[in-house]
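Subject: Protein record for review, amino acid sequence with backbone structure tokens
How to read it: Take the token row as a discrete description of the fold.
Enclosed: The protein record, placed directly beneath this head.
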Amino acid sequence: MITMRKQFIGVMSGTSMDSVDVALCEIDEKRCTLMASFEYPFSTELKQECLKLISNGGTLKEIGQIDIKLALLFSDAINEMIKENNIHRENIEAIGLHGQTLWHEPNSPYPFSMQLGNPNVVVTQTKIKVVADFRQKDVALGGQGAPFAPVFHHFAFNHLEPCGVVNIGGMANITILKEDKIIGFDTGCGNVLMDLWIAKHQNKSYDKDGSWAKGGALHHELLKSFLSDEYFLKEYPKSTGREYFNLEWIEHHLKKFKPIEPQDVQRTLLFLTANSIALEAKKFKMPTLLLCGGGAKNSFFVQTLQALLPDCHIQDTTKYGVDSDFLEAMIFAWLAYKRVNRQSVALKEVTGASKNAILGGVFESE
């Protein structure tokens, strides 16, 4: 029996809020193939509204309005991608919409994970079925609701066992593929602290190729202080976000020291991300580590990580057939495929949920 391959769109805007990534994929039980991709700019004004909401809270009115504004942004990104690539909407089974994470708190007495970007608006604007709200059911089952990347990494790369896969977005997560098992968790901050720090001191959204960090000096005692944080000492399953790793977190550690040059702090933050990943990778003695996400483009970061893991072969996932820039968007196309076909997602070993479950809510186009 031949399984027909279906087309799904995945939409992802990560912690960094630098762009909306849209991926059109053909998917069946064995493969998820990227057919087209599109990067749509994240509105600077909307990003600032989201960051303000995360940092200072907001009114119910502000939350409601941002929910709609994000939905319109995602809709525009999807419609533009469809237009640019001459895609026939009727060929698309569904859109997998992650939404924008505003708050992630799975360990509180009332655990939740909040992603905004109203799927009702997206289905109305695109006229395509939408699958959304993927994380909450896992949280309801006692899981972390994150990271989701490890199950897709297993789907895409299990033929390479043993190996590790590291996604370096705003936060960083690692997947260990060994003996057909999946271990995965957030190692901690990815690009988020570096991005926040250079924005504050250089008015830039990110440090291209780590050039500003490269010109600084590593502050060993500050790095030691950073790595002493309880998050890095926790056992998995674990996950985190901007509500934990932020400018206030940096300032808390800086208070312990005499003034440090901002450029030296930038270099130390880069080493923090590299060390927090390397420390976890060393525990599992992975011979190969595949990188994806924005951090994979930072040449100084990759050099630093390689120096910390001299016996590990570090490569970009693109060299293994999965575009590192759009891997996260592909994940949500694949999760939409799983939901439409009523297939559970094998996350319990990753997130600590009580069982695997069918994830996501379906919003019909008609």
Q: What stands out?
A: The chain has 14 helices and 13 strands. The radius of gyration is 20 Å.
